[in-house]
């Protein structure tokens, strides 16, 4: 029997196995229909956070997520998080209410040009005007979001169309999947063979795994390839955790985080001397390549990526267009048929190089990682989290300094751990909503979110969401009362900061308490450990307001030797 378009959409979501979506009542007919079917609406406070929750959910679940919103100002707030998802290849389907069809182009209430609005941040955009085609349009949206290079899709739903009758799905109709990647495309056999031969013969090869390796679930395949051919594996910030950083051949995070106290600082000269690089799911962006200065220009580059336009964007490369996990498996198969004696012979020296670099990092950072000085050093906070991190934990960082502290000082030790860093657009305020989306996707895993006080201020309201929706996360606020990255970057570039970088005093523990969460202010190392031990196991959202050193800065390349920054901080300490 015919049903309404709203109900047909809800039934289609259910048929795809979708059990929750991120919403705030609108489109109301769709939300009511979905809730009638038992699909959970996770109610957000702002659309900016909602899109980021959907992003976090998709990253952890490896399934396309759904967010719903109203037209007009609500839709405009979806643009930043959908842009992040587009940049880092995460599939999100946004179902956005539109003005009634008869009112279109008449300056209806909150009417804007949504197609132009979303044109720069989506893979696919359309409007459902014909009720008879509701299933076609939903299939198209999910297919676009999950196929090829995944990304966001937006389907506009005119309010009057939602009330109209829609036919049942065609006989034999199978809804498009929400899993991604939708298609495991194999790179060309000839390219795989050439890449395998180059890696087998290389004097100093290096594999660099990016965010595409995480999205493709290629971690186990990378570990097998590394062990088989004695290939060291480094990651970009987005690829952190693709292989456990405790593996003998795991280099760690590289890029512009390799300053003097960076975990891979000791590997920089070695990387500058590699002769063959396999890029696995990397955009070769500015931060991941340290401004495109990290890799030696004469190195042979092999680039494996699902997006053909990314291959060769910044480095001439042997092209392997295809799914990262499938491509890595095919490379391993090809390598098994080649002479790997050179790779085996070089293995002890590579392991020694990596171990030496790690040991130097441990020695050089011991003072700050174990410091009991107050205010606490962020390195001490991150090291404490690393020590207590459960094997199945999800660690989420906000943008700015938080991502750099996490990348360097919290170690990925198991294949079950996940690290979510918003490095596509690096927008402040996305740490907490990313964490809430991750918790919704994997409710049985502890989720620890590291944010700065500046970033946290963007989304305080979502603590109420965490409490109301029973999304128990641990939020560690590095409270130094400044916009740290902004302040230090201005000093490095211009010799002095603007007036915007100094923040007023905020009691984040009180904010948490006011929202029904647990809140605690932390001043000392003893308080920190006690608070973390309790927060990780408690089934309640906890906000730890950790008072941290405003003069501390992470190992951003070049800042350790910047005289303007060093002199400024020395002058502050004298006063």
- The rounded Rg comes to 24 Å
Structural class: alpha/beta
Low-confidence stretches: none
Number of helices: 22
Report the average pLDDT across residues.
96
Q: Profile the largest sheet.
A: 6 strands, parallel
In percent, how helical is the residue content? 40-55%
For the largest beta sheet, what order do the strands appear in spatially? 11-10-9-12-13-14
Q: Termini, distance in Å? A: 78 Å
The shape is globular
As a percent range, the share of strand residues is 15-25%
Number of distinct beta strands: 20
Question: Can you describe what's shown?
Answer:
The structure is a single chain. Helix content is 40%, strand content 16%. The chain contains 22 helices and 20 strands. The chain is globular and about 70 Å long.
State the main characteristics.
alpha/beta, 40% helix, 6-stranded parallel β-sheet, 575 residues
């Amino acid at each position: 029997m015919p049903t309404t378009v709203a109900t047909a959409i809800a039934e289609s979501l259910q048929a795809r196995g979708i059990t929750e979506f991120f919403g705030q009542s609108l489109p109301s007919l769709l939300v009511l229909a979905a809730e009638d079917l038992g699909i959970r609406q996770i109610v957000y406070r702002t659309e900016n956070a909602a899109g980021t929750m959907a992003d976090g959910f998709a990253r952890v679940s490896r399934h396309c997520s759904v967010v719903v919103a109203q037209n007009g100002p609500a839709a405009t707030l979806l643009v930043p998080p959908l842009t992040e998802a587009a940049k880092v290849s995460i599939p999100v389907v946004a179902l956005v209410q539109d003005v009634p069809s008869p009112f279109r182009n008449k300056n209806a209430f909150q009417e804007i040009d949504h197609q132009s609005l979303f044109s720069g941040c989506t893979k696919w955009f359309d409007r459902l005007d014909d009720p008879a085609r509701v299933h076609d349009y939903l299939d198209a949206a999910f297919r676009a979001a999950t196929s090829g290079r995944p990304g966001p899709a937006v389907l506009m739903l005119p309010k009057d169309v939602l009330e109209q009758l829609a036919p049942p799905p065609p006989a034999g109709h199978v809804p498009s999947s929400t899993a991604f990647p939708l298609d495991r495309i194999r790179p060309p056999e000839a390219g795989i063979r050439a890449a395998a031969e180059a890696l087998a013969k290389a004097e100093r090869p290096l594999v660099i795994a990016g965010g595409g390796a995480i999205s493709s679930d290629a971690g186990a395949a990378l570990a097998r390839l590394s062990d088989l051919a004695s290939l060291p594996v480094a990651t970009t910030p987005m690829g952190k955790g693709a292989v456990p950083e405790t593996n003998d051949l795991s280099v760690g995070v590289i890029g512009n985080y390799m300053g003097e106290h960076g975990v891979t600082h000791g590997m920089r000269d070695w990387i500058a001397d590699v002769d063959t690089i396999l890029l696995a799911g990397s955009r070769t962006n500015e931060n991941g390549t340290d401004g495109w200065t990290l890799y030696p220009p004469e190195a042979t580059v092999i680039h494996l990526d699902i997006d053909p336009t990314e291959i060769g964007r910044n480095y001439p490369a042997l092209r392997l267009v295809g799914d990262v996990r499938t491509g890595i498996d095919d490379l391993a198969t090809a390598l098994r048929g080649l002479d790997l004696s050179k790779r085996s012979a070089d293995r002890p020296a590579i392991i020694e190089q990596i171990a030496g670099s790690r040991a130097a990092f441990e020695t050089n950072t011991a003072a700050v990682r174990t410091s009991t000085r107050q205010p606490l050093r962020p390195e001490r906070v991150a090291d404490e989290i690393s020590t207590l991190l459960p094997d199945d934990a999800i660690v989420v960082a906000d943008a700015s300094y938080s991502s750099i502290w996490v990348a360097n000082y919290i170690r990925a030790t198991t294949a079950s751990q996940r690290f979510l860093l918003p490095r596509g657009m690096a927008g402040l305020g996305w740490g907490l909503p990313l964490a809430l989306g991750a918790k919704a996707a994997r409710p049985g895993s502890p989720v620890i979110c590291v944010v700065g006080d500046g970033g946290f201020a963007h989304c305080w309201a979502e603590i109420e969401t965490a409490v109301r929706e029973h999304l128990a996360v641990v939020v560690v606020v590095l409270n130094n009362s400044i916009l740290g990255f902004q302040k230090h970057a201005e000093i490095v570039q211009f010799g002095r900061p603007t007036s915007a970088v100094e923040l007023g005093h905020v009691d984040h523990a009180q904010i948490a308490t006011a929202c029904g969460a647990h809140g605690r202010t932390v001043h000392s190392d003893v308080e920190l450990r006690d608070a973390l031990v309790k927060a990780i196991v408690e089934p309640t959202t906890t906000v730890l307001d950790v008072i941290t050193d405003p003069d501390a800065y992470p190992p951003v390349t070049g800042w350790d030797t910047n005289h303007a920054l060093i002199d400024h901080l020395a002058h502050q300490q004298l006063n």
